[in-house]
Inverse folding.
């Protein structure tokens, strides 16, 4: 008979418990709270899916998302596209919606040295113009629009 508390009789932690233990809840003033699980934010920031047409427009708008300053992608109408960051072609095949969401919200959670700006973070930033202090680059709705568009890019 095994002794209570022996290695074989002790409960093993489940995978679900490990995931819950790794979850980080983020809540900043003026922003909607979200939960990071591993390398993703699984739930939409708005509780609803975004609009892919608006997401594409945000990516191409050099005053709003400014994505094509650093990224290239399947945007034939854009003559000048960046080459500093990964090609957005196939982004939906490489990353889940949750992984895309975290990369947009705050890529520094994945790589502290990234040059990608945190599009939905307002704390701990330096060299932010006074007009933009305390405001995210994109709204929660705009983040969801970009996520749903990028998830359509499968090849």
């Amino acid at each position: 008979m095994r002794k209570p508390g022996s290695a074989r009789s002790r409960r093993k932690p489940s995978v679900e418990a490990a995931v819950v233990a790794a979850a980080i809840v983020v809540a900043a003033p003026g922003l909607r709270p979200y939960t990071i699980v591993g390398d993703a934010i699984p739930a939409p920031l708005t509780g609803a899916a975004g609009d892919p047409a608006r997401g594409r427009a945000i990516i191409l708008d050099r005053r709003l998302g400014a994505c094509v300053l650093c990224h290239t992608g399947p945007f034939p109408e854009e003559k000048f596209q960046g080459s500093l960051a990964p090609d957005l072609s196939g982004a939906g095949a490489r990353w889940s919606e949750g992984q895309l969401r975290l990369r947009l919200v705050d890529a520094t959670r994945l790589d502290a040295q990234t040059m990608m700006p945190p599009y939905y973070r307002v704390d701990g930033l330096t060299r932010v113009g006074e007009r933009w202090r305390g405001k995210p680059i994109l709204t929660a709705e705009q983040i969801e629009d970009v996520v749903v568009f990028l998830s359509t890019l499968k090849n």
User: Anything to note?
Assistant: The chain has one domain: 16-150. The two ends are 58 Å apart (CA to CA). The beta strands are 24-26, 34-36. The helical segments are 15-22, 52-60, 91-94, 97-106, 140-150.
